[in-house]
């Protein structure tokens, strides 16, 4: 039976070459598109899924009517994080994150521009970004502390140990390196270099 079926398929492929090419091409394009869409969806839903408490981490967004339409954005008033911790017992920890901040890092005459985040002290306790050096519970306690990724530390200091050294960010601010972060995976929304 199967042998007979394959003979009929083979004969029809060669009798109707034009239709066969169109059908096979359409099927191949459809399958390739489906695979690409599934890979894209898998990548999108994998973002920040590596954090230990991923099921307990939420991001707050603003929603407001603008010109008759509801607009949403992920910027909230600065005091909101403190108010949430204080007023809602369900909130264990709240941190503020300012993303994609471009900064000029310099040590003596060496200067590089990197994009990073300005975060609250509890950032490393909330998110599971592993530190190669430093203590995640105290690394960001000081206002003039900074945590660099391994890649950024290497580009600034080479193979020299960067822990405890001072770098200049911007024109005047000096920060002490309090931690070296393992280079983050590509599937995180945080641009972690500094």
TrEMBL record:
Cell membrane listed as a keyword: no
Alphabetical list of Pfam families matching this protein: MacB_PCD
GO MF assignments: transmembrane transporter activity
Residue span(s) of domain MacB-like periplasmic core: 20-187
GO cellular component: plasma membrane
Membrane spanning residue stretches: 21-41
Keywords: Membrane, Transmembrane, Transmembrane helix
PANTHER family: ABC-TYPE MACROLIDE FAMILY EXPORT SYSTEM PERMEASE COMPONENT 2, MEMBRANE COMPONENT OF TRANSPORTER-RELATED
Name used for this protein in its record: MacB-like core domain-containing protein
Species lineage: Bacteria, Pseudomonadati, Bacteroidota, Sphingobacteriia, Sphingobacteriales
